[in-house]
Design goal:
Elements: H1 4-8, H2 11-41, H3 46-62, H4 64-71, H5 76-98, H6 105-132, H7 138-167, H8 169-188, H9 205-214, H10 217-230, H11 232-263, H12 268-291, H13 297-321, H14 325-353, H15 359-388, H16 390-411
Length: 416
């Protein structure tokens, strides 16, 4: 089994991995800058904050399915560095042109466009990994790709608040733009010759238009859906990831209120808890990447569901009965450790069973499913929490995850 250092010695993969650490840290600066900007315009307004956040999520449903079709047509490396270059320019418009305008509408539009472009970047990034590394290192590579978001969570959420409070939201947007620029340069430096080079890596605009006329985008989206429905492993994996993201959505707002009420802290303790959760995710990804080959992928997912449900239950019960920041921090690390293998195992499974020409559609569909589960369950749990309380929501989610994991071991697919 190769070590992480062996994978990182792969020049092409290293550029992709490093670029994502930088740009995703910039994303956290962007989020904090948007929150600070909304606070400047409308202090304490949850509605205004919800508006700007909604423009970051809507592209998943509007652009995501279409993006997967084009990602499978275009050269993935070129798609990624063009996307990051566009996002660099768009984010730069906020501090240069729109920051001091009274209306927030131009900023909403820019945020929407930035995340629309991101919908092309994500499936391209996930689809290109098998083209950059050997098959034997695919699991390690996916684990390292997942660490980019985890590093951003562990460091970005904690540090970005301090940085934005020091330099202000306007400078935060400048830094985010710089992070996209650096990422674009690193991806551009990836060698054009890859392990599984596509026969038609470049599609000229004119040819692409003619191709769209002959075969509509909607038809290809339908093909992607039928492909997912027919493939048992893909269908099963996406169902499990839907459940996981539904659970995350269910506890997202609920656990924030739970921590605020229990630890009597509005933001300070919450920010540090997110950092410890990110640390757990990072360590869990490293451990799973090194030892995960000893368990089948489905067995790993079911074991993680059981462990995650148990961790949520223990967190809710212990922190409620013994309010302590140190205890909550330790439990947050544990939760991150047991959750992290699910995404790495799921992505590896999809890479193994999805054909090369369908990967973009599959990952776009996966993004759609996960965000839909998150949004719907977040809204439902917020409504129920007002009626039955945050504690019962957390306990219910924990029990559902445990039951699903046990059911998977007893009756599900565990051989792959």
């Amino acid at each position: 089994m190769a070590h992480f250092t062996e994978v990182l010695k792969n020049r092409n993969f290293f550029f992709l991995w490093l670029g994502q650490i930088i740009s995703q840290f910039g994303d956290r600066l962007n989020q904090m800058a948007m929150i600070a900007l909304v606070y400047q315009r409308a202090p304490g307004s949850s509605l205004e904050l919800a508006k700007i956040i909604s423009f970051t999520i809507i592209p998943v449903f509007v652009i995501g399915p279409v993006a997967g079709v084009y990602v499978d047509r275009w050269d993935r490396r070129r798609t990624m560095y063009i996307c990051d270059s566009l996002r660099c320019a768009l984010v730069l418009l906020i501090p240069l042109l729109f920051f001091y305008k009274q209306s927030m509408l131009p900023i909403y539009i820019v945020v929407f466009l930035v995340f629309c472009v991101g919908r092309f970047f994500v499936p391209a990034k996930m689809s290109v990994v098998p083209d950059l590394v050997d098959e034997k290192n695919l699991l390690l590579a996916n684990s390292l790709i997942n660490t980019t978001g985890m590093i951003a969570a562990a460091l970005g959420f904690g540090l970005s608040g301090l940085i934005i409070s020091w330099i202000g939201p306007k400078s935060g947007f400048y830094l985010d733009s710089v992070s996209f620029f650096i990422s674009a340069i690193l991806i551009f430096l990836i060698g054009k010759k890859m392990n599984h080079e596509k026969k038609e890596s470049l599609i000229k605009v004119g040819k692409d238009v003619l191709e769209v006329i002959e075969k509509s985008v909607m038809q290809e989206i339908k093909e992607g859906i039928f492909y997912l429905v027919k493939n048992k492993d893909l269908r099963y994996t996406i169902f499990l990831l839907f459940l996981l993201w539904g659970a995350l959505g269910s506890i997202y707002t609920v656990i924030i209120v739970f921590v605020q009420v229990t630890l009597h802290s509005v933001t300070k303790d919450l920010g540090f808890l997110v950092m410890f959760l990110g640390l757990g995710l990072f360590l869990g990804s490293l451990i799973y990447g090194k030892f995960g080959h000893k368990l089948s992928l489905f067995r790993t997912i079911f074991l993680s569901l059981i462990s995650s449900g148990s961790a949520i239950l223990i967190f809710a019960l212990l922190v409620k009965s013994m309010p302590s920041f140190l205890l909550a921090s330790a439990l947050a690390i544990v939760l991150g450790l047991v959750v992290s293998p699910i995404m790495a195992a799921g992505n590896t499974l999809i890479h193994q069973v999805a054909h090369d020409e369908m990967r973009g559609k599959v990952f776009s569909s996966l993004e759609f499913v996960m965000h839909l589960a998150f949004l719907v369950c977040m809204l439902l749990s917020a409504l129920f929490a007002d009626q039955i309380g945050e504690m019962k929501i957390l306990i219910s989610v924990g029990i559902i995850l445990i039951i699903t994991g046990v059911w998977g071991f007893l009756f599900g697919r565990i051989e792959r």
